[in-house]
Amino acid sequence: MSAVAVQISGLTKAFGTNHVLRGIDLELFKGEVTVLMGANGAGKSTLVKVICGVHAADQGEIRLHGRVIKSSSPSDAIASGIVTVHQNINDGVIPDLDVASNLMLDELAKPSGGFFLKRNKIHADAEKLAQSIGLNVDVTIPVQELALADRQLVAIARAMAHEPELLILDEPTSSLSSIEADRLFELLDRLRDKGVAILYISHRTSDIQRMADRIVAMRDGEIVGTFTEKPLDYNAAVNSMLGQSMADAHLDIKQQGAPVLQVENLQIRENAPKISFTVGEDEVVAITGLVGAGKSKLAAILYGLEKPVSGSMTLKGAPFAPKSARHAIDTGVFMCAKDRGTNGVLQDHNLTKNITAPFLARYSTFSFLNKRAEDAKTRKTINDLSIVCQTEHDDIGTLSGGNQQKIMVGRWLSEPSTLLILDEPFQGVDIKARRDIGEKIRETAKGRATIVMASEMDEVMEIADRIIVLSDADIVGEHMNQDLNLKKIISEVAGMGTKSDTQKQANG
Amino acid sequence: MKLSRRIVLGMAGGIAALATGFTTPTFAGEMPAPFDNAGDVKIALVRYLSTGDFFQAYLSGVETQAAAIGVDLRVFDSRQDAALQADMVDQAIALGVDGIIIQHGLTESMQAAAQRAIDAGIKVVAFDVDVENAAIPQVEQSDYLLGKLALEQAIKDNGDSFNAGYVYVAGIAPLDRRDVAWQDIKKANPGIKELAMFGTLDNPIANSVANQARSVLQANPSITVMFAPYDEFAKGVKIAVDEAGMTDQVDIYSADVSTADISAMREPGSAWAATVATNPAVVGEVSVRSLAMLLAGEDPGHNVVVPPTLITQKFLNDNDIKNMDDLSANMPQFAHADVAVPAWMPLPPR
Amino acid sequence: MQDTPITNQAVKPKKTFTDMAIRYGFLLLMAGLLVFFSVASEGFLSPYSAVFIFQSVAITGILALGVTFTLVVDGFDLSIGSTATSALMLSAYVMVVLEMGAVAAVVACLVMGALIGLVNGILIVKMKVPDLLATLGMMFLLIGLQRIPTEGRSIATGMKLPGGETANGTFSPEFLWLGRHRFDFFIDNLIPVSVVILIVVAVLVWVFLELTRHGRLMYAIGSNQRAASLAGTNVNRYKIVAYMMSGMLASIGGILLAARLGRGDIASGNNLLLDSVAAALIGFAVLGVAKPNAFGTAIGALFVGILLQGLTMMNAPYYTQDFVKGAVLVIALVFTFVLTGRRGGSNH
User: Fold this and answer.
1) pTM
2) Does B314 reside within a domain?
3) pLDDT tens-place string over residues A28-74
4) Residue A504, pLDDT score
5) Of A68, A380, C78, C296, which is least surrounded by CB within 10 A?
6) Inter-chain contacts counted by CB atoms under 8 A, chains A and C
7) B186 and B214 together in one domain
8) Are B191 and B269 members of one domain?
């Protein structure tokens, strides 16, 4: 085992009466990837924020190579060699600036820097930096024109410009497809070889199995398990972080009922092939594919946000061409959008207001709201989905990410629908919350058609009765979720067999 | 400062003149050079302030008098841009005008510009701005007299010992000059007690002043005289007095007049006892006449003062004066000031 | 507003002193001011004084409630001040020049306010002009427009029109009643019409924003426009409605102003704009909710009114009043943003 890079001892942090960290002792080693696991609300994010200087610890200390670090701000932490790449990609890059400026941003922001820009030098330095970590992009194009994965890589490359001792990655793959994630892993491999200590926070099994040298499990503000023996016991780590054992999800695969949604010769985008499929009553159909395969576009068409290029749809036999979200909802087609922060959560609103927002007409007489009925419905949703909160009047911002996601899903389960579309419903939630949400979706699936858009195979296999594989706006595979030929699905996802080996490893 | 609706002369005369296309006035032959060929004489009005009734009326006065003489008038309007106003003087010089009227502005920005005009051989008069130049006559309305006449009327009506409220905002030149009169009167009459001083120029002024005045009346119920030397102030004070139910107790003395002011003064039992005003259109006429005298080689004097007129509620009621037209008709000294009127000077028709 | 206490909850989060201070601090401060002025200034503590305060804030209060609408949908309306003064001019024009009655004047103003709001809304929603810029443009446009029909002159009976004839219409007694009548309330002739209108408007706006689904959806749009749209809300329509409400409330303010002044005065209305925006922003802090709300706005306007009334009665010069207004606003904003900051910080 290599040398200790970071030593954390006796770290505590409380917000008011809420003790989030209760004495964390943790060592991070040079050239090693330590994966930090924990359910939503276990205190992972707070721990990261303390290490990288956003919050001050109440007690305890952090030593970097034996030296005590007292960071009072993120820039302090960066100066002392601790660099963090946050979950939200756009926090790490400035979309309007070109790649080179982004990479050199921290140089530019230094007070010691000159007054005038030296464009050529910036480009040369940026080029050098990008190459040193194997990032192959044109440094002169604006970051917003890059794919998500490349943006993430730029954010990490930017972090690397500081030559950090410790690199913290907070769910770096949450917006990436498997193939895109692979490029990230290759980069991390190189950094590991350079001797950087990496603290990696993730819920994704595939990430953990691919990257982890060591797993640390956190629960209720404490470290509850450290797993170092190879092969790493992922299940034990999960059990440890949950404080209970998590059985494999057991699915009772249902056959397709009477057809609800029939899609005929639908062209998702210009020059795309025409696709047709049917979703029946009672069944849950997972549509999977890479980022950009057309899943979100398809969801947008079904929900009336966009028009298909050509083709037709029927809902329970009647022609279905929604003109707006409102129109779709009124026809009984609901969609739980992906990226809850941008598309779902009403910040500074309480849980009730978040749940009932689409259905206010049903809770009002002459436009006057019946708040009692709203609250009752919300309490029911809270109980049904085991949402951890104090009352239905809690501000949604006080809930952990997983519970916020449960509220989002609960919103669309709170009223009966004909067709329910859930776009990436497991985004950024821990395995426990994922199982809760999945079970609830399946439990309530009777009487409606359900479509789940998901790019993670684990998630797909946990939720679906039937799996439709989308690649480049075309349906390339359709499977019942029984005796799956994973290798085949993965090659379909990747676009007919390319890169199937790495995919198999990632999902095996 | 005066928001007077005195446009009567201006509009009537101006339109008449425009209709006849600046034809040579009938008595052109009797006028001295260069007005024997008045159509070739170009004069410019370079304005700093232009928004509001006072400035509209002033402009109409300038226009009617210019039309009466028959000169070619150009109007430059800088809309409160001091630097632009100075540039406009240069534009006028370049245009080859014979005379310039500078209307308001800042001493700092206009002094040099005015000197450049003089250097170019152009005659200049200035209204309400001190350009610190001996060659330039200053046309002014006497703000001091405005305040003094109003206060003398107050003493006449109420005796020399009363409790007063005073509306004043420091730093506004005409109000500062009117303030001098108030201070002098107070010194001369120790029986006059200033119980409260207040004021604001928050827009709409009358509304803001009304809010303040009501608080003042509430705190000082013994006030019997309000000195509000600006008609917007007076309007606000009147609203407050009415709202406080003190109409019978308080008398308001003010400066400036307009059609709306006349109707407010003539409301039954109105607290607005008197106002003192100079007719802005007359000031405009006097400005042009002073310039014309300069051009004809005569001297209007360095300080051309347009005297103000006292207008009492009683006078308005006795003569059933409803608007500025009636006022001019019934009060010749208001309609016309006998200032800068040499024998040859044609006057606007009225 | 958002955390209505519920009774069936055993475990309640502990309210710290800071929480209480943020929630009730402003109301306590206001109570403190009332006590201070009552002691320091004779005559402050009387029903008349209370009515004066209400009346002095009635017009800005109504405008501020309009601003509240646009703030709720995460917009802003810089044109309310000039909308109010345009309504002032229009009502005078309708009665004095066109010689029509009070009803026509009021209807014309309301229609104009709604139209202005509609144009603002369309500029912002359809043409995608940023709200500040669109309403700034509208502000200048209106300042100019209100002067065109009279060539920059104020409107009063007997004025000369550009055409040369005299305007013979008068402000109708019914219209002036809006500005001058006082209702009996225990004491004869106590409460002015404008105060009654302020209270009615405030209650209606409060009811609309807090109790109806339309208000709820407007708040949802203000929080996360995209999420609200995906939840089936017609975002564009609500935004336009918010600007139309703002325009109409500003017109009501202008009507009351005209009725009080009794003539059509040229004014930019910038002070009205600034005062009412200040009231709405102070309103963010009133109950510590850190968002626009009708109750807060009304209290914010009253707060400023109490301060100014007290200071005037104590003979403070006008410039200290501007200073005090500014100080109150800054303190309120600090309140609001400290609160928002705390929320972000404890969100782990």
Assistant:
1) 0.77
2) no
3) 999 999 999 887 778 888 888 888 888 888 888 888 888 888 777 87
4) 37
5) A68
6) 114
7) yes
8) yes
- B-facing residues of C in 152-171 (CB < 8 A) are 152-154, 156-160, 164, 166
A230 and A314 co-located in one domain: no
Q: Are residues B290 and B242 in the same domain?
A: no
Is B25 domain-assigned?
Answer: yes
Same domain, A83 and A229: yes
Query: C44, B219: Cβ pair inside 8 Å?
Result: yes
Based on the fold, state whether residues B241 and B292 are members of the same structural domain. no
Residues A129 and A31 in one domain: yes
Would you call A360 an interface residue with chain C, using a CB distance cutoff of 8 Å? Answer: yes
- Number of domain units in chain B: 2
- C46 inside 8 A of chain B by CB: yes
Residue C321: list chain B partners with CB under 8 A: 200
Q: Which residues span the domain enclosing B30?
A: 8-141+279-307
Res. C156: pLDDT tops 70: yes
Chain B partners of C189 at a C-beta cutoff of 8 Å?
Answer: 245
Which helix (DSSP H) or strand (DSSP E) does residue B14 occupy?
Answer: helix B8-19
- Give CA–CA dist B200/C319, Å, rounded: 8
The CATH number that applies at residue B76 is 3.40.50.2300
Terminal alpha carbon distance of chain A: 28
Q: Which domain holds residue A444?
A: 259-341+417-507
Structure tokens at C283: 């309103």
Distance, in angstroms, between A474 CA and closest chain C CA?
Answer: 25
Angle at the Cα of B259 from the Cα atoms of B256 and B263, rounded to 5 degrees: 100
In this structure, of A115-129, A265-279, B115-129, B220-234, the range with the lowest mean pLDDT score is: A115-129
Our CA-based measurement puts residue A360 at a distance from the nearest CA of chain C, in whole angstroms, of: 6
ipTM of the complex: 0.84
Pairing of strands B123-127, B138-141: parallel
Numbers of helices and strands, H then E, in chain C: 13, 2
Beta pairing, strands A474-480 & A466-471: antiparallel
Q: Do A15 and C345 touch (CB under 8 A)?
A: yes
Q: Which residues of C touch B169 (CB under 8 A)?
A: 318
Residue A398 to residue C214, Cβ atoms within 8 A: no
**Which residues on C lie below 8 Å from B167 (Cβ)?**
none
Domain count, chain A: 2
Residue to mutate among B3, B243, B325, with most C CBs inside 10 A, is B243
List CB contacts of B22: < 8 A, sequence separation 6 or more.
Answer: B39, B67, B70, B72
Look at the block and give the residue holding tokens 């002169």. Answer: A140
Examine the domain organization and report whether A180 and A323 are in the same domain.
Answer: no
Which of B9, B56, B214, B261 to probe the C interface (max C CBs under 10 A)? B214
Task: Read off the pLDDT of each residue in A372-399 and give the average, rounded to a whole number.
Answer: 90
In whole angstroms, give the CA distance from residue B57 to residue B8: 8
Does A223 or C154 have the greater pLDDT score? A223
Evaluate whether residue B156 is within a structural domain: yes
Mean pLDDT over A407-414 rounds to 95
